[in-house]
Each structure stands twice: as C-alpha cells, then as structure tokens.
Amino acid sequence: MTKSERKATLADELLSDPVVRQYRKRKVREIEERNRPTGNEKRKIKGCQTYKRAKQRRH
C-alpha cells in the first residue's frame, strides 16, 4: 500500500475497509433485531396518548 493510499488514522482505515463494513452492518442489524419490541410491546412505544376514542365512554 502506497503512502497516498493510506488513510490519516487507523479508524479511517477500518471504516473504509469493505470486510469490516459488512461485519459492522451485520452486527448492528443483529443488535437492532434483538432489541426490537415484539407483539404487545409495539403499542407501548407510541403510548396511550396517541389512541383517541371516537366517543367518550359512559360512566
């Protein structure tokens, strides 16, 4: 690798490497899937305030 092909820092070198980029994308996707809420948890994200009733309930 010539001096002009080198990046300024090691971090820049790793960020530009296609193998590391694919690994990083895969790992981020796995973590997001693991942390994604499932089933009833999706409703809890929006909160109860977003659900508005068409009519008020009778008491």
From TrEMBL:
<keyword id="KW-0418">Kinase</keyword>
<dbReference type="GO" id="GO:0016301">
    <property type="term" value="F:kinase activity"/>
</dbReference>
<keyword id="KW-0670">Pyruvate</keyword>
<keyword id="KW-0808">Transferase</keyword>
<dbReference type="GO" id="GO:0005730">
    <property type="term" value="C:nucleolus"/>
</dbReference>
<feature type="compositionally biased region" description="Basic and acidic residues">
    <location>
        <begin position="29"/>
        <end position="42"/>
    </location>
</feature>
<dbReference type="GO" id="GO:0003723">
    <property type="term" value="F:RNA binding"/>
</dbReference>
<protein>
    <submittedName>
        <fullName>Pyruvate dehydrogenase (Acetyl-transferring) kinase</fullName>
    </submittedName>
</protein>
<dbReference type="GO" id="GO:0006396">
    <property type="term" value="P:RNA processing"/>
</dbReference>
<feature type="region of interest" description="Disordered">
    <location>
        <begin position="28"/>
        <end position="59"/>
    </location>
</feature>
<dbReference type="InterPro" id="IPR039883">
    <property type="entry name" value="Fcf2/DNTTIP2"/>
</dbReference>
